[in-house]
From TrEMBL:
Organism: Flemingia macrophylla
GO biological process: mRNA processing; RNA splicing
Name used for this protein in its record: RNA helicase
Start and end residues of each Helicase C-terminal domain: 267-441
GO cellular component terms listed in the entry, alphabetical order: nucleolus; spliceosomal complex
Keyword Hydrolase: yes
GO molecular function, one term: ATP binding
Domain Helicase ATP-binding: 40-244
InterPro entries registered for this protein in UniProt: AAA+_ATPase, DEAD-box_helicase_OB_fold, DEAD/DEAH_box_helicase_dom, DNA/RNA_helicase_DEAH_CS, HA2_WH, Helicase-assoc_dom, Helicase_ATP-bd, Helicase_C-like
PANTHER family: ATP-DEPENDENT RNA HELICASE (PTHR18934), ATP-DEPENDENT RNA HELICASE DHX33 (PTHR18934:SF118)
Keyword Disulfide bond tagged: no
Catalytic activity: ATP + H2O = ADP + phosphate + H(+)
Keywords: ATP-binding, Helicase, Hydrolase, mRNA processing, mRNA splicing, Nucleotide-binding, Spliceosome
Pfam families found in the cross-reference section: DEAD, HA2_C, Helicase_C, OB_NTP_bind, WHD_HA2
Amino acid sequence: MPSVHQGNFSNRQTQFSVRRQKIIQQRKSLPIASVEKRLVEEVRKNDVLIIVGETGSGKTTQIPQFLFDAGFCRDGRVIGITQPRRVAAVTVAKRVAEECGVELGQKVAYSVRFDDATSGLTRIKYMTDGLLLREALLDPYLSKYSVIIVDEAHERTVHTDVLMGLLKSVQLARSSSVSGGQGLNLGNKNVNVTLEKENDQSGSVRKKPRHEKFAPLKLIIMSASLDARAFSEYFAGAKAVHIQGRQFPVDIFYTLHAETDYLDASLITIFQIHLDEGPGDILVFLTGQEEIESVERLINEKLPQLPQENQKLLVLPIFAALPSEQQMRVFAPAPSGFRKVILATNIAETSVTIPGIKYVIDPGFVKARSYDPGKGMESLIIVPTSKSQALQRSGRAGREGPGKCFRLYPEKEFEKLEDSTMPEIKRCNLSNVILQLKALGVEDILGFDFIEKPSRAAIIKSLEQLFLLGALTDECQLSDPVGHQMARLPLDPIYSRALILASQFNCLEEMLITVALLSVESIFYSPRDKLEEARTAMKCFSSSEGDHITLINVYRASNDFLEKRSMEMSTTKCEKVYKKWCKENFINSRSLRHARDIHKQIQEHVQQMGLNLSSCGDDMLQFRRCLAASFFLNAAVKQPEGTYRALASGQVVQVHPSSVLFRKKPDCVIFNELVQTNHKYVRNLTRVDYLWLTELAPQYYAMQS
DNA sequence: GAGCACTGC
């Protein structure tokens, strides 16, 4: 027996060292390896450094290791690297831990929502940018970090933008704490007092001696876009360095004339590539599920008309709402002799990297979300991509070898495109951002130093909404305790408010389930070809009162199912039958699991806050009254012709076809979402009594009448 | 009669 162990052990040892050798080789061959010394020198010299690193430069994995080796983690300090996406934070941390030859969670670790792998030993910490923003609420000086690296800054997500504003002032505060000791200067005014106020709020965790000296904070902004000007200007002319990438050349082709029907043009291009070009898979960028499903159908209709030997084409869709088992199919290699055609939304632009792509077809459009603060309405409309987006898409053809990209528009049209996509902060509801900034001590939101300032109207609208929700006082201060409680919850402010109200209405249990489910993508999945079956499955959960109670019914049914099964079988088996249950009921198990995670996290928060976790039992009237009290800003009344009028903005809207109230059409409803696609739709509704609104939100409805 | 993509101590 011992000899067997011995054999296995040495074998594993050999494999291990072979792998280490390979990793060391790979690290050395990265373009960035040759500039290690210079980079470290630049970080020492500059408090803010912009690093423009092309795809494949290795900046994300290597720079933190360079800085660690150069002593930036002395005295237990931490290098923080933020990513816009969870998967990136997790996978990069795993890779770097392996490169360092350490166990993940020790020197190298990641922290993302619901999953913190860090320990006291962690020195290189990968995390999502949203998580670092949350950390700042507890530790406004981010005192444990010596360096913070904001990666993928060119994506300009709301979190990245807010984080850069915050880091700018934290850096200033920390460097002046060394020289003279000022407070954290956020916004226009010096809000020295804020920290003390905050400390009073949150108890001992945040207590920090006022006169504590901080080491200066180094900031590194990493971007893949070639234009670093905006970042450099924002950080007072900060130095920008450029690191070469390792990307294979991609030939770009344009059409001679503008296409009238880009779906048809995509179809023709797919077949042209398939018949005329060498081996390699095709990636087509479409705008949504509907387009993807229709192109999929068209390809499969045309395929039998081709000669037998040309029929080996495998069509694979991928979009976010697709159940993950089906998403996984795009990663599997095609059967021998087959070519894969992947029909994807934007998900394939940055979020997932599909191996084997040699050809990209880019019709040049994207479905983009924008927000109209005046109407309180989101729109989801198809718009042309930006130049940088087109570049990103074509780059997907050059990951493993030289590739080709077919842009389905003339070259002169490319020149007319916007350089980059409008930053998200200029096209989203700002209520959450503003609540967070307020909690961080920013008094003057209009004067806050955003890298790109949202419109004044958008800021004022959100301040107004926060005031109506009771989060802000007449003086525009965070209210106590409601405003502080709301800022602590990682939810939309309107949902946080609903939870606080629900504890007074004795239906917090129901509201907790509701807001968890409202916070995730729809849990209902209905593929076009099984629409009827999906509707039948949903019927057994649906409530005639509306979507909120329907959602609660699904959640409770899945809970009952899980509880019963978990007693009978192992965790893995249970997982399997749970997925089967979801599939049979046309429920997206990924969304439901996500809602379950949120439910658990928020439950812990509200318990810590001492809210009353009670249930209204079967008294759904009480729950609906609470919905009315919570979502009074989103009420609509039926008009004679069967459409609805949203009371806050006066807009004429329709009930979304996914709602259980689609046919019912009660006189008065509250809703959670107002979206314009082909029509203006309200989603997630519940029937309420109009009189409840005037009774429960007189401050608002008295003004209206 | 219909759902781009991310994310949160």
